[in-house]
Amino acid sequence: xIEAINNSPFSVLIWGWIIVFxxxxxxxxxxxxxxxxxxxxxxxxxxxxxxxxxxxxSSEDITSVSSLNNAPTAQAIWQEINLSQFQHMxxxxxxxxxxxxxxxxxxxxxxxxxxxREEEVADNLMRARELFWAPNQTPDDIENLIxxxxxxxYGKKMLRxxxxxxxxxxxxxxxxxxxxELKSYPLRQVEVRVRGGVMMPVADLLPCLExxxxxxxxxxxxxxxxAVYRRGIFRAGDSGVSDLEYExxxxxxxxxxxxxxxxxxxxxxxxxxxxxxxxxxxxRTHVTVFVQxxxxxxxxxxxxxxxxxxxxxxxxxxxxxxxDDDSGYAFFVNHPDSALLAVDAKGGGSSAH
Length: 353
Prior knowledge:
Layout: H1 2-6, H2 10-38, E1 42-45, E2 51-54, H3 59-66, H4 71-99, E3 102-106, H5 115-133, H6 139-152, H7 154-168, E4 171-175, H8 179-184, E5 187-198, H9 206-211, H10 213-216, E6 228-235, E7 244-253, E8 264-265, H11 270-278, E9 284-293, H12 299-314, E10 319-324, E11 327-334, E12 351-352
Antiparallel strand pairs: 1-2, 3-4, 5-7, 5-9, 6-7, 6-12, 8-10, 9-11, 10-11
Helix pairs in contact: 4-5, 5-6, 5-7
């Protein structure tokens, strides 16, 4: 019977339908697979809490992929921008830590920073962030923003969060400088210079020297460590004394040995020798006072050291020094011995401008 069917005229028609059906089925499966791999399915939940799939090639999916403000594109751009920013911030963090005597090491010691070091690193971190997002800001604009973040605590908060995240990935804070340097440095240094006329008595410079005391206790700016802090003309009022030139420099020095290489003593330090050499050919009366103390000292310490130096100048000494453990003072007076005596002067006020 089977042979009869195979030999019948309908056998060709039956096999033809079978071939057409299989070919159509293959095309449908291939089309479905193409659409499946062309659009990534996104699993969402319907109102009944059951999962259903989107992104199967509908016109709605094509519109969302071709639109710029779709969620996947926004997420990718957000990730790239933040990744770029934090790569920059991590580089800035390592640089700021190294400048302050620390570094992040894999499985390092995990120490805590001294408070003044933490403030330094936080300021430098904020400075790097501002330059990354707004590179055309002026230095004054950046310093004002840093002062604001220091007041609000934002800089330290960001620094601590970054260090905590690094520690969770086994990158720990490790010192690279001796403990006494981390604690005492950067040293705060003050240079006061007062210039008078040719052969002017030193006593005529004393009111100006005493007036400079108002700035000796100020803190140097972190961003401009060797700038002239104050410079101007000291008006002698009605005393008959010529106007004096003055200059005050404030500096942070984070590299030993500072102004006084010896641990303690009263011998003439190199800064005085250098000052004497620079004034060797002038006939103008010139007084220079150097003051230095450690970073954790109160500003009254610097003021007191400066007062001691001025007192010795008033007593007639031409040069001197007194220092101990990175704190102290030194001074030099450029004038012949005969001019150390005061001259008679009329009474009158004086001021620094």
